């Protein structure tokens, strides 16, 4: 299992926080650092974190918390995790564009908006052990979110390096760059039901604590093809400019190493306004294009 739908879950949170409809304003207190400006971009790891797991490197930017050891796999340091015998390490996703049928809505105060019926995930070719991808959830008018993710593929599993989420709506816009410091092991090699992962990610005046439980296996039909999936339940607790909680359930194909379905519900407060989001995305087919 290689990739969790953390990108989808946190994008849904920030999309709900910015809402839709009405006149545009710029969200206060948001950092505008970009992926290209941070030392955690592909191929750019610098200082090794003391006690960190393989592939985990500490990075620091202005306004970010110092490196922490909050990442845990089954309640222990990821450095203590040993993959089961015979478990195959993940490899980067096949590059290309994947399409997801998307339903649901986001409510910001009294105003409600819906995501586009199809969202697109563009996966770039890997650079070394790292891979960058972009999830585009904007509608034809340009409202919605664009989420960039950087993952690092190591023998222990997949590490989350960075999430950069830009959200634009008719009443607000936001630019949030979240960095796991050091990169967090989020999908351990050989993950199976009964295991769990915890980590923190922060930036742009926002802190997120994430707990992922691998709960069961389940068969799904995607594009007419039946696949085995591992189902994970995720709970994220946010504080800072956005506060509240988000839960999501993710179905990941154990054969194709792709997120095939994600259902996310978020209840947060942003800039003094309550927001609610309930969004489901389902992969159209198992190959890009």
Topology record:
Blueprint: H1 6-18, E1 47-48, E2 57-58, E3 72-73, E4 96-108, E5 111-113, E6 118-123, E7 130-136, E8 144-154, E9 157-168, E10 173-188, E11 196-203, E12 206-222, E13 225-240, E14 242-253, E15 259-270, E16 273-283
Antiparallel strand pairs: 1-2, 3-11, 4-5, 4-6, 4-16, 6-7, 7-8, 8-9, 9-10, 11-12, 12-13, 13-14, 14-15, 15-16
Description of the structure:
- The chain has 289 residues and is mainly beta.
- The chain has one domain (6-43, 69-283).
- Helices cover 4% and strands 52% of the residues.
- It has one helix spanning 6-18, and strands at residues 47-48, 57-58, 72-73, 96-108, 111-113, 118-123, 130-136, 144-154, 157-168, 173-188, 196-203, 206-222, 225-240, 242-253, 259-270, 273-283.
- Strands 3, 4, 5, 6, 7, 8, 9, 10, 11, 12, 13, 14, 15 and 16 form a 14-stranded antiparallel β-sheet that branches. A two-stranded antiparallel ribbon has the order 1-2.
- It is globular.
- The two termini are 22 Å apart.
């Amino acid at each position: 299992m290689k990739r969790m739908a953390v990108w989808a879950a946190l994008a849904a949170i920030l999309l709900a926080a910015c809402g839709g409809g009405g006149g545009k304003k710029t969200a206060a207190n948001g950092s505008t650092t970009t992926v290209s400006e941070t030392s955690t971009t592909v191929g750019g790891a610098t200082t090794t974190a003391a006690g960190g797991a393989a592939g985990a490197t500490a990075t620091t930017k202005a306004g970010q918390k110092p490196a922490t050891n909050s990442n845990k796999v089954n309640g222990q340091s990821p450095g203590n995790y040993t993959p089961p015998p015979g478990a195959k390490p993940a490899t980067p996703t096949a590059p290309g564009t994947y399409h997801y049928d998307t339903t649901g809505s986001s409510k910001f105060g009294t105003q409600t908006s819906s995501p586009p019926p199809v969202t697109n995930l563009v996966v770039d070719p890997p650079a070394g052990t790292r891979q960058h991808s972009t999830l585009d959830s904007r509608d034809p008018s340009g409202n919605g979110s664009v989420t960039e993710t950087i993952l690092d593929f190591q023998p222990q599993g997949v590490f989350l390096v960075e999430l950069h989420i830009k959200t634009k709506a008719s009443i607000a816009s936001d630019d949030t760059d979240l960095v796991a410091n050091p990169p967090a092991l989020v999908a351990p090699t050989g993950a199976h039901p009964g295991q769990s992962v915890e980590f923190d990610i922060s930036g742009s005046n926002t802190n997120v604590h994430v707990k992922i439980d691998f709960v069961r296996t389940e068969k799904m039909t995607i594009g007419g093809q039946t696949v085995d999936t591992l189902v994970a339940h995720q709970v994220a607790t946010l504080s800072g400019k956005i506060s509240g909680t988000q839960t999501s359930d993710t179905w990941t194909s154990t054969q194709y190493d792709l997120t095939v379905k994600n259902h996310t519900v978020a209840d947060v407060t942003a800039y003094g306004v309550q927001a609610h989001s309930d969004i489901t995305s389902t992969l159209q087919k198992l190959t890009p294009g």
